[in-house]
Amino acid sequence: MTVRTHKGFTLVELLVVITIIGILIALLMPAVQAAREAARCAQCKNNLHNLGLAYFAAAEVHPDKPAVYWASDWIETLKPFVEDSHSMYICPNHDPTVSLGGGFPTFYLAVFNGANFLYDLPFDTSTFQCRRSPWVEQQYTGKPGYHGTPLSFPPAISFEFEDILGGGDMDYNDLRAYTEPLPYGGYHFKSVSRSAGYNFKLKDPDGNVILAPFHPYAEIVAAGGLTSYAINNRVRRFQTDANKVLLVEYHKHVADVVGASAGDIWPDQIAPRHNGMVNVLFGDGRVDTVLPETLDPRVTSIHDNLWRPDLDPKLGP
User: Fold this and answer.
1) So what's the pLDDT on residue 189?
2) Domain limits of the chain?
3) Pick from 231, 230, 244: which is nearest to 309 by CA?
């Protein structure tokens, strides 16, 4: 009787097979990564396309007014036209550790003397009555935020107010508060210190009171959200500006690049998230993927031809 034996793979043969498989994987990985990046870029372009549709829908609602009047509030303005889908505002390649900016709309601190309304102070640290609060940051850095995650500044923003418009002591301790952007849209506001005879309420960007009183330790989650894109800071002047930049991938939510007094440093804020390229939405709804230098507003001809609304004066001849 003949006994058949089966010869197995030798160690050398196994090593050869493993090596071949490794080489094939190495050859395929760049193609796989390129396909994934192409998909992410396409999703980003689709986001901008849909935001463009939302912009045109907003324009149709009030044809006699700009679709977006306040550039800082563009996220809130367009939200009703994107079914409150916050994912549409975020590029798949968005890095929150780099793009710390967000669509922080202008909320207001309403100041009252008893029951008598006096005035509104914007939550804007560039104004005279409001500034960043080192005290808040010292007291609350590392403390649990709304979802239990330790607070850090940024992306959280600290505020302290001087509630007297003129002739006050300017100690900026009348009200102290902070707000933190939440991962899936919205802002958590919290009042943490008060040293004033006046009373305070919190108003949303439309001027509606959303929390009263806004005294320690009142808190609320208000609408808002982060974004990977910035709108042209002169968007309210858009009319027949089909070839002008409307939205672009950016580290802030407003591209303050138009006009002689524009404040943004272009290389610091432009966000080339797709192999050195950026996606951009133009005023006619067209979405392109371009090199950042082709949009550089520091070049006068590019500023005037691609960024400046036709109603605004040119910087060049």
Assistant:
1) 92
2) 39-94+227-307, 108-222
3) 244
